[in-house]
Amino acid sequence: MAKDVTIARILTATKRVNLHFLANLLSKKPHKFTQNSQFSSP
To answer: Comparing 29 with 6, which gets the higher pLDDT?
Structure first.
């Protein structure tokens, strides 16, 4: 049981890190994309 709990904690931790990493990439990269979409949006 203890091993399952630690594995679950590791999985949740990696998921949070991956989400944080993806959020950082999305917030950094598509500045041009967001600017273009703002210009193109009515």
So the answer is: 6
Residue 10 has pLDDT above 70, yes or no: yes
Q: Determine the Cα–Cα distance for residues 17 and 27; give it in Å rounded to an integer.
A: 15
**Domain tally for the chain?**
1
Domain that holds residue 11: 2-40
Q: Which value, in Å, is the radius of gyration of the alpha carbons in the chain?
A: 18
* pTM > 0.85: yes or no: no
| CB-based burial, 13-37: b 16+ in 10 Å, e otherwise | eeeeeeeeeeeeeeeeeeeeeeeee
